[in-house]
Amino acid sequence: MDIFKSTQSVGEIVSIMPKASEIFKRYRIDFCCGGNRLLMDVIKEQKLDEDEILKKLDEAFEENKKVRDNAKDFRVMSPSTLIEYIENTHHVYVKNALPELNELVTKIMRVHGINHDVLFRVHKLFSTLKAEIEQHLIKEEDVLFPMIRDYDKDPSKESISLIDKALNELENEHEAAGDILKELRKITVDYKVPDDGCGTYHLAFKKLEEFEGDLFQHIHLENNILFKKLGIDEIKMY
Hints:
Elements: H1 10-16, H2 20-26, H3 39-46, H4 50-67, H5 79-112, H6 118-153, H7 157-187, H8 199-229
């Protein structure tokens, strides 16, 4: 039985089955900032095999049904509950990961930069990303999320208008952060460590890739689930 269709949006598929994000990563299909795009359009643009991808998605869905446990269904959460999850899971992770990553990226630049000048670029990009993400979390926690919580308690056109305005103000920095993530993956050739890379080099790139994955999931929850609950369907995030 065919579970998924290429006429569905990428974000919708990941909302139904979070494990789809792993498949999309494998094929370099953007499920966060490109979550509103139809899968068929992405497949055509990237010249991928539609039957192969749909088969993998359906197989993953069937496998997931067999081992389903207490997995959270974010689609049924209220906006306030979802925000609490995002803050307690993704915001906490980011606040812990950024200082560690900053130390690792700086260390490998100092030790290996003379032989791998790409690390100077990695350091500069990460430093910019760190500043943008730290500012992003503050704006979410102090401005955007309180507005959404108020709206959840007392929905009104005035409240949604304020939320929409806040999102528009954040849009440019979101896109800039997305560009940095893409550039980091590109210049590191998918975080490939050179043969002379030490243990710290491996750890730094592993942590950078983990950070990217967590941020993608973070963005997906906001862009493809949280904002859709508010009736905000076409917001560019990262």
